[in-house]
Amino acid sequence: MLETIVKQEIIxxxxxxxxxxxxxxxxxxxFTVRRMVKAAGEIxxxxxxxxxxxxxxxxxxxxxxxxxxxxxxxxxxYIYEYKVLGxxxxxxxxxxxxxxxxxxxxxxFASFESYRMxxxxxxxxKYVQWTGIYVLFLLLLGFVAEEKSxxxxxxxxxxxxxxxxxIHRYAKANNMxxxxxxxxxxxxxxxEENILEEVKVEIIEAEREExxxxxxxxxxxxxLEEFLA
Length: 229
Hints:
Helix content is 87%, strand content 2%. The chain is an all-alpha fold. A two-stranded antiparallel sheet has the order 1-2. The N and C termini lie far apart (142 Å).
């Protein structure tokens, strides 16, 4: 079985398929990060899904706790959780490296087996050459389409915007909210005091009327007593 796979060069087809998948993954991650950098540079007006999510979550967190203590960790969290075509961006970025190692392992294994079984030097050299070509191509692709620095730039844009713009904006909003609450409290207290004053005035007037009635009753009694006497 193993000898048949090596002789019929099935491993070449497997390595080729892995190569294509690795290239696709690299292109997806490269263009995604490139688009992310552009969106992060214009985060204040960007409609990018990640930018909108980060701004909304940051606003919500600022309203709950007044201040986000670690903005970099906050941004890192949402960059790591960002998904493209149903898979996390981090997965797309690391997939070509996994493919590279898998191709290298398959190539070394096929070369060793072809040499051990003595099926011919041509097949052995073919496995060695194509394994080297695939690995070298993926290494060059990873070097040319390097995303770490771009992703770091996008993160810096986002952190700078949140720290220099959003924090001050939400701090002012929170201060205004506190001032409004204090003003509302003052107004409520003033209204309560006015109501108390009105109640006091009504009570005093009621007491005065009661005193007048008592005085009138006393006069009527005095008159009746004098008349009856």
